[in-house]
TrEMBL record:
<dbReference type="Pfam" id="PF04402">
    <property type="entry name" value="SIMPL"/>
</dbReference>
<protein>
    <submittedName>
        <fullName>SIMPL domain-containing protein</fullName>
    </submittedName>
</protein>
<dbReference type="InterPro" id="IPR007497">
    <property type="entry name" value="SIMPL/DUF541"/>
</dbReference>
Length: 227
């Protein structure tokens, strides 16, 4: 009689592993906000005269309704000249700064023209008006909306990819973590007179920079667990 050897049943061992990778997602947008930086400097021997000139500009800006003004600041400092290791007080320097923003190039140009007219009306070399290059930028609203859309796109893509991977590997691949890194975009700068200080500069002030497309990017890091 033959002796039957018992059949040894070994469990099929399964193992799990993680897949970690990055993938970039991008969206093309048109910058929707024009901005420029304004700096008014006044030098006078008398502090009160500095304040009088500064107030002409500040009153106009406070009453402005056509554009958005941000980051306003005013400083008043004594000015000295130096010779033979000595300093001599020569007066005061007042500086008024603002960032001007608008979605409408005509309104921004009109605002700058009025500033130049105020400067011309002072008829003084002690009053200097500086207007920086105009640039297009992506507003916070457009940027946040674009990031939200890209996050949703990345999650949708990952869900589809995990299902495809599960089928190909004959495993259950599930999303474990998603970490999103947002890429900041630099403003687009355009040629324009860096200093507009008289009526001669008004021609330059009426030039609107050309809008150009920009990419908004995210580079999320994904971790999938397959088992």
């Amino acid at each position: 009689m033959k002796k039957l050897l018992p059949l040894l049943l070994l469990p099929i061992l399964s193992f799990s592993y993680e897949i970690n990778f990055n993938k970039s997602f991008s969206k093309v947008v048109n910058p929707d906000l024009l901005n420029t930086y304004i700096n008014i400097n006044v030098e006078k021997k008398d502090e009160s005269k500095v304040n009088i000139e500064i107030e002409k500009f500040n009153d106009f800006m406070k009453n402005n309704k056509s554009i958005t003004l941000k980051n306003g600041s005013f400083t008043l400092s004594p000015k000295y000249k130096y010779y033979e290791n000595k300093q001599e007080f020569v007066g005061y320097v007042g500086s008024l700064r603002y960032t001007a923003e608008s979605t409408d190039a005509k309104k921004l140009n009109s605002f700058m023209d009025e500033l130049i007219s105020i400067k011309d009306s002072t008829k003084s070399e002690d009053v200097k008006l500086n207007i920086s290059n105009v640039s297009w930028k992506i507003s916070d609203e457009l940027q946040n909306k674009s990031y939200d859309e890209l996050r949703l796109e990345s999650i949708t893509w990952l869900e589809s990819y995990s299902k495809t991977l599960s089928t190909k590997l004959s495993k259950s691949c599930e999303i474990k973590t998603i970490n999103v890194n947002e890429s900041q975009n630099e403003n687009i700068m355009y040629a324009r007179a860096e200093m507009a200080y008289s009526s001669k500069a008004k021609v330059a002030a009426d030039v609107a920079p050309i809008n150009s497309e920009q990419n908004i990017n995210i580079n999320p890091n994904f971790t999938l667990e397959c088992k």
